[in-house]
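The instructor's notes for this session suggest beginning with a concrete chain rather than abstract definitions. Hand out the sequence below and ask the class to guess, before any prediction is shown, which regions might be ordered.
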Amino acid sequence: MNYRGPFRVRIDEKPHPKIEHPEDAIVKVLRSCICGSDLHIYHGMVPDTRVGTTFGHEFVGVVEEIGPEVTKLKVGDKVIVPFNISCGKCAFCKQELYGNCHESNPQATAVGGIFGYSHTAGGFDGGQAEYARVPYANVGPTIIPEGMDLDDAVLLTDVVPTGYQAAEMGGIKLGDTVVVFGAGPIGIMAAKCAWLFGAGRVIVIDNVNYRLEFAKNYSQCEAYNYEEIGDPVEFLKKATDWLGADVCIDAVGCEAGGQGMQTITGRKLMLQAGSATALQWAINSVKKGGIVSIVGVYGPTGNLVPIGNVVNKGITIRANQASVKRLLPRLIEHVQAGRLNPKGIITHRIPLENVAEAYRIFSDKLDNCIKTVLIPPTVRT
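After discussion, reveal the predicted structure:
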């Protein structure tokens, strides 16, 4: 696919990717996904998203070619490709902070390289294509276990690790009440994973009823429409004996609705790095001494958030891009044991050639869309 500007993507012919570094691999894509984070760049919310970029940070494929220094893969291997591009050798990779690699995106001070996510994340083309170049092929790609469904595997590139790390960063203890803001794929997965850490009660907040119904069924949680419950913060305080939730997870990020001033300044006028409504609700809904976990995507500049409440309530905030490589062994085990069913959130499988329509369906929340998988033509023939 080829980005042509906000709300405009199309199929186009681009040169076949080539080995550019001795540790590169070329992967023939078998599955790729459209992520809620892709909608941020599709909507023009992410700086330095250049015309001609190929999106797609969630993909799996088969190794077609390897550079002369690639030793961990061979041609023909089917691989999960983490959305993080990580060198494996820098100070941060050595701490297993693979989303903060210091080498894959050297012009940034925060995030590491990400496939298909604007030049603020390194300018790498992504996997919503027939072929993709994968740097540092000795580090990120993980061989898909024998017998694993490709639809399960592709969701291990981002959705499952991000949802799992959202719950992990919450420090959930046995019996905790966990509130997840956002019933997109990440929020639904975070709610599901909260049970793995011992949550006693899980609540999801959104304003799209079909997503809330899906969350209730898939994640076995409570789900409420914020447009129907009055002030969400007051509702959640009342639901928790006026103490607040033990853990709140922001799985929405910069395009949250629900508050006029945030929407106008963050999404319409872009005077801040997106609308921080979900983060504000999380801070105000969590108990004193509680934990707010942030996996929703925000821009690199400031946001209007109630930092005074963070200080005065003694809140711990934990946030990051998921360290996919660190989490994959554990998550593969969860999938193989049947504790997680990633492919269960897929609602749409669409040919790559119809990517423009796929983005429209997902962006406009049509046809009860939760998660879309794109299938390249080379896989279908």
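Then share the key points. The domain at 2-158+323-380 is CATH 3.90.180.10 (Quinone Oxidoreductase; Chain A, domain 1). Residues 16 and 131 are 7 Å apart (CA to CA).
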